[in-house]
Design a protein that fits this description.
alpha+beta, Arc Repressor Mutant, subunit A, four-stranded mixed beta sheet, about 45% helix, about 15% strand, globular, binds zinc ion
């Protein structure tokens, strides 16, 4: 039985990961950028995760596993870029929050709705990995900066962060903007 990881703890783990991988949110000048998407490749490299894009069948979004002493992250590269980014962030979440010794295999019930229907997701770990992914891809501090500099539309914010509009809406509701 695994204990639930409180959300503030997950949030701190994301912040620690940013520091470890030299990603400094506080110095990003939103007004001078075309996008502020978090560099996931920088994170996987920094954590020594081997990326394996693969044309899985449509219902499989991603997989994370350890083989020997190596870590592998498989992502379905037939999915849209925003969806792949969410999958990668979600799998990094499993890696940071959960044991690397178990195979994490992510199956979608319905395309594009998987990550945003917490009530439908059975496992606690899936909810935790999704929360981690939202924190990683859409840091509250960075959203605040965007909103303050006049980037306010959901569609615009979604493009800025390279996430789906659905993921951005969900995040904005959670942060109290919508
Ligand atoms: Zn998962």
């Amino acid at each position: 039985m695994s204990e639930r990881i409180p959300f503030p703890v997950i949030k701190r783990k994301v912040q620690r990961l940013f520091r470890e991988c030299n990603i400094d949110i506080s110095t990003i000048d939103v007004s001078r950028k075309k996008h502020v998407a978090i560099d996931l490749q920088k994170i996987t490299k920094c954590r020594n995760i081997i990326m394996q894009p693969h044309p899985f069948s449509n219902d499989i979004s991603g997989v994370f596993y350890k083989k020997g002493d190596k870590l592998f992250l498989g992502v379905n590269n037939t999915h849209t870029e925003t969806r792949q980014r969410f999958t990668v962030a979600h799998e990094i979440g499993h890696h940071i929050l959960h044991s690397d010794d178990v195979l994490h295999f992510d199956i979608t019930e319905k395309p594009d709705t998987l990550h945003f229907r917490a009530d439908k997701i059975q496992s606690l770990q899936e909810t935790e990995a999704n929360f981690f992914a939202a924190e990683l891809l859409m840091p509250a501090e960075l959203i605040k900066k965007c909103v303050e500099s006049g980037i306010v539309y959901v569609s615009e914010l979604a493009k800025y962060f390279k996430v789906s509009e659905e993921a951005m809406s969900y995040r904005l509701v959670n942060l109290g903007y919508l």
